[in-house]
């Protein structure tokens, strides 16, 4: 167990102002990048009491949606190059997207190129369906993921 | 049947419902579907159970048994013994269970422990006396069945540097193939002399192999070809014909008997299998499974929810075989197609 936090002094940013979506301009069924961002922006970082948005781990620009093909691509930037929580953050994103969007959507999750020392290894694990499924059956890991996902609900009240 | 002529169609006959989580794998019971014995299928799931399905007299399929209260995590893979009497199930709970079918009911008669974490695949050899398992702990285990449904571990094969996704025995030789997250395919055989199992060949990028995780392997019915599929979006066809005996006969000439043993070793193992062709450009997402039917049709299941069928085109002007896409069935499933097991009867 590491005693210190991996990144003891994260840079915290203000949350982007939330724009109220006009009902008519947005077809109910269509999924766009803001929908995806809204679903993940408040996920809490595994180590700090801040959201992924506040820590600039994600932004709306780091998301791409192809509604026609049914694909969602997210890239995220861990706060430090050696962040061992990168795979946990990736898992949180997967679970949240599975919960929020129809199952036919194919999701690709990668770290922002150049943002992590083990970029290839992290990306490979996050996009291996079998490894993800097995990891989510690990009770300790699942608990950590759930904490990151559900504590965000407290902030949005 | 000439597959390349005429319009082919893949039609869904029935949807088997019952599992409450994703179905990871299927296996047809090889002793069924012939001689009036109704076809039997096993499916295994993330719901920790295995379901047995049987085709009734009307032709429709019903669930005839649920194997539950055994595995404590996802059941990832299942395989029938060649006699069809035993079913092996491999689970993320690190165990492999052996079930015996007694008058329609299934009883767990053995539990194989040893893997450090998730077991991903299990395969019986042609004789039914050897079982192979593999998993995320990077090892391949070979077990031998003893009288009274006892299983003894014969060898723990180390060599892969990452998670081993699948193991498959050659259709009639005691040669085992394993495929891995380390992007390679390994061939394992017993050293005639010492009875030690070892890796006789590794097919990696240098041997025209895959450049990302290899998910599955399937031999054709002759055992002289095998297909592998990968996250690199290609299928690769390999020549696995046994050339050693021919080679030592012809190019090595007739040698003094005492040297022939060494010749066998030399000509035997190292470069027996070679890449024949790569089927690329047809898949845009991970290919999770490949299966070679008795009629020579290669089926692939991919993460784009589609099933594709390929067949070798007999173009005599080219030395290297080439494969043509016979058909693509889109949205074959609502989500990723994990395994396509070709029906043992053939069409």
Automatic annotation (TrEMBL), chain A:
InterPro entries, alphabetized: FSCA_dom_sf, MIP18, MIP18-like
The MIP18 family-like domain, residue ranges: 35-95
GO BP: protein maturation
A Pfam match: FeS_assembly_P
Top-rank taxon, per record: Eukaryota
Cleaved signal peptide residues: none
Ranges in a coiled coil: none
Gene3D superfamilies tied to this protein: 6.10.250.1280, Fe-S cluster assembly (FSCA)
Family as reported in the entry's similarity comment: Belongs to the MIP18 family.
Protein name listed in UniProt: Protein AE7-like 1
Organism: Phoenix dactylifera (Date palm)
Automatic annotation (TrEMBL), chain B:
CDD domains recorded: WD40
One GO-annotated biological process of the protein: iron-sulfur cluster assembly
Keyword Repeat assigned: yes
Entry keywords, A to Z: Repeat, WD repeat
Domain of life: Eukaryota
Transferase among keywords: no
Xref: Gene3D superfamilies: YVTN repeat-like/Quinoprotein amine dehydrogenase
InterPro entries in UniProt: CIAO1/Cia1, WD40/YVTN_repeat-like_dom_sf, WD40_PAC1, WD40_repeat_CS, WD40_repeat_dom_sf, WD40_rpt
Gene Ontology cellular component annotations, sorted alphabetically: cytosolic [4Fe-4S] assembly targeting complex
PROSITE patterns: WD_REPEATS_1, WD_REPEATS_2, WD_REPEATS_REGION
SMART domains from the UniProt entry: WD40
Pfam families per UniProt: WD40 (PF00400)
Family recorded in the similarity comment: Belongs to the WD repeat CIA1 family.
Protein name: Probable cytosolic iron-sulfur protein assembly protein CIAO1 homolog
Species name: Phoenix dactylifera
Name of the encoding gene: LOC103720025
């Amino acid at each position: 167990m590491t005693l210190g936090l991996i990144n003891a002094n994260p840079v915290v940013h203000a949350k982007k102002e939330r724009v109220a979506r006009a009902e008519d301009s947005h077809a109910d069924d269509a999924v766009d990048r803001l929908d995806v961002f809204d679903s993940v922006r408040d996920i809490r970082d595994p180590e700090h009491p801040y959201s992924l948005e506040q820590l600039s781990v994600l932004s709306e620009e780091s998301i791409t949606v192809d509604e026609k093909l049914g694909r969602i691509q997210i890239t995220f930037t861990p706060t430090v190059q050696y962040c061992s929580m990168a795979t946990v953050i990736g898992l949180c994103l997967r679970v949240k997207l599975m919960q929020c969007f129809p199952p036919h959507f194919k999701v690709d999750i990668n770290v922002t190129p150049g943002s992590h020392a083990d970029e290839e290894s992290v990306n490979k694990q996050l996009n291996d369906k079998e490894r993800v499924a097995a990891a989510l059956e690990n009770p300790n890991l699942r608990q950590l993921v759930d904490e990151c996902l559900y504590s965000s609900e407290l902030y949005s009240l | 049947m000439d597959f390349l002529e005429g319009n082919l169609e893949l039609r869904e006959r029935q949807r088997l419902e019952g599992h409450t989580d994703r179905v990871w794998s299927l296996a047809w019971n090889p002793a069924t579907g012939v001689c009036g014995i109704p076809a039997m299928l096993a499916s295994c799931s993330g719901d920790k159970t295995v379901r047995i399905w049987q085709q009734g007299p009307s032709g429709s399929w019903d669930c005839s048994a649920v194997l539950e209260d055994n595995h404590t995590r996802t059941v990832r893979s299942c395989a029938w013994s060649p006699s069809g009497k035993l079913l092996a199930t491999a689970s993320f709970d690190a165990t492999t269970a052996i079930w015996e079918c007694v008058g329609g009911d299934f009883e767990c008669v053995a539990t194989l422990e040893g893997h450090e974490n998730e077991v991903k695949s299990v395969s019986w050899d042609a004789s039914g006396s050897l079982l192979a398992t593999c998993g995320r702990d990077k090892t391949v285990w070979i077990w031998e069945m003893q009288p009274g449904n006892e299983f003894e571990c014969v060898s723990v094969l180390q060599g892969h540097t990452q998670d081993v996704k699948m193991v498959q025995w050659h259709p009639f030789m005691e040669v085992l193939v394993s495929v891995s997250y380390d992007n390679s395919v390994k061939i394992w055989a017993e050293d005639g002399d010492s009875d030690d199992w070892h890796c006789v060949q590794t097919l990696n990028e240098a041997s025209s192999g895959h450049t990302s995780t290899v998910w599955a392997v399937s031999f054709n019915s002759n055992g002289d070809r095998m297909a592998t599929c990968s996250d690199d979006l290609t299928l690769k066809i390999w020549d696995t014909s046994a050339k050693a005996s021919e080679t030592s006969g012809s190019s090595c000439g007739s040698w003094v008997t005492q040297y022939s043993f060494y010749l066998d070793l030399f000509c035997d193992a190292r470069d027996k299998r070679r890449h024949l062709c790569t089927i690329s450009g047809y898949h845009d997402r991970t290919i999770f499974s490949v299966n070679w039917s008795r009629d020579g049709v290669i089926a692939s299941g991919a993460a784009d929810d589609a099933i594709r069928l390929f067949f070798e085109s007999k173009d005599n002007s080219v030395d290297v075989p080439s494969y043509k896409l016979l058909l693509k069935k889109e949205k074959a499933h609502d989500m990723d197609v994990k395994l396509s097991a070709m029906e043992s009867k053939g069409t």
